[in-house]
Amino acid sequence: xxxxxxxxxxxxxxxxxxxxxxxNEINALDSDVIVLQEVKNEEFNENLLKSTSYKHYSFAxxxxxxxxxxxxxxxxxxxxxxxxxxxxxKYIEYALIVxxxxxxxxxxxxxxxxxxxxxxxxxxxxxxxxxxxxxxxSDYRFILGDFNCSDTSSVHQxxxxxxxxxxxxxxxxWTDLAYVxxxxxxxxxxxxxxxxxxxxxxxxSLTDVSTRVDCIxxxxxxxxxxxxxxxxxxxxxxxxxxxxxxxxxxxxxxxDIQMPFExx
Length: 264
Hints:
Helix content: 10-25%
Mean pLDDT: 95
CATH superfamily: Endonuclease/exonuclease/phosphatase
Low-confidence stretches: none
CATH topology: Deoxyribonuclease I, Chain A
Order of helices and strands: EHEHEHEEEEHEHEHEEE
Shape: globular
Number of strands: 12
CATH architecture: 4-Layer Sandwich
């Protein structure tokens, strides 16, 4: 199963050429499931779908404190595109939850775009997300997207089962697949918010550093058979001559994972 996450950057910079770049990146991956953050609005989402081969999708505009904190996100949303049927969808703050059915198995995907400017809200949201999906039956589970925090953050530590948050814990733990790729496939972890190389930040005086904010986590599935990670890559790095930009100010993350039911 091929899965990807991509923050496509809701900005007019580099448009309309950059929209074609985004479409090309999505089509080149040919993922079974891809989740997108910063989808400008429903119209933009429809334009992307028309230029790709996905028959199943879910799009949800942000609601609640997301829009209160950042009013310009009023029409922006999260999207999930799938080659396989989506049987359930629900939006909660900063996350779009879907169930995908493939070969008789249900796979839960949680597309997140956590806030960049409040660790308290990030922590509240990830705890709420875990509580919400604990009520949904599925065979396998992925949380992926733009977490807007680093490997050492409380959110990452919480998901990995190394700490509690707000009196909550995850049982069992989640695994960041970038670490699996590094240990078992020799694929080095890369920075997905690249402030030194991505043209979006060129010429700007920055007081921040690059980091890996875009991730794919898988939930421990014991006693079910474990999937096997076959490949992981970071995409969206090419600079277009016309736009002078990469397709986004983030790089995306793609995995090829052998799900147990695919061996049938």
